[in-house]
Amino acid sequence: MNPEELKALVRLFYEDIWNKGNVAALDVFLEPDFVFHNPVFPVGNNGIEGYRRIVNTMHLGFPDQHWVLEDVLVDNDKVVTRWKMYGTHTGPYLGIAPTGKEVTISGMSIERFVGSKIAEQWVISDALGFLLQEGFTPSRPVPEPAGF
User: Fold this and answer.
1) CA angle at 88 for the pair 142 and 35, rounded to the nearest 5°
2) Which residues of 55-90 are buried (b: 16+ CB within 10 A; e: fewer)?
3) d(Cα 49, Cα 122) in Å, to the nearest integer?
4) pLDDT tens string 56-79
5) Which residues of 91-130 are buried (b: 16+ CB within 10 A; e: fewer)?
6) Does pTM surpass 0.85?
7) Spatial strand order in the sheet of 78-88
8) What is the DSSP secondary structure assignment for residue 14, as one 8-state letter?
9) What are phi and psi of 140, to 5 degrees?
10) If you ran DSSP here, which 8-state letter would residue 130 be given?
């Protein structure tokens, strides 16, 4: 695929999967043996079913979430995306009870493509910024994450 096609595909991926929560479309976007790298979700999240759990977890915690892609860059088979997620924390999220607070999470992703499907994704987000927005401080530690 050429760079413009890859950019368009990533934009569609974020719109369908993250903004709309259309987890049924993951089969269209991801390779069956998809590999996911993210320190917030460190284990058990590879493959389409693992990623589906992540999307569902995010949508449970932030049902109104909206992702804005600020930069989309292509280098061969990789697409680098700088994004912001806006949402209201109205459901449980990784052991953190809903706060009702509006939050913004900034981050970057790299998607590696094989043909027209994502084979691997690396994600880094501003987890500390999120926790500070939620009101956590060194004197108010974050609870242990619950399974999802």
Assistant:
1) 70
2) eebbbebbeebebebeebebeeeebebebebebbbb
3) 17
4) 999 999 999 999 999 999 999 999
5) eebbebeeeeeebebebebbbbbeeebbbbbebebeeeeb
6) yes
7) 30-37, 117-125, 102-114, 78-88, 66-75
8) I
9) -130, 85
10) H
* Identity of residue 104: T
In one-letter notation, the amino acid at residue 71 is D
Q: Pull the structure tokens for residue 40.
A: 């917030």
* Cα 105 to Cα 87: distance, rounded to the nearest angstrom: 9
Q: Are 30 and 48 in contact (CB under 8 A)?
A: yes
Q: How far apart are CA 8 and CA 72, in angstroms?
A: 9
- pLDDT tens digits, 9-58: 999 999 999 999 999 999 999 999 999 999 887 777 789 999 999 999 99
Query: By the 8 A CB rule, do 101 and 89 touch?
Result: yes
In angstroms, what CA-CA distances link 11 with 96, 128, 133?
A: 29, 26, 27
pLDDT of residue 140: 62
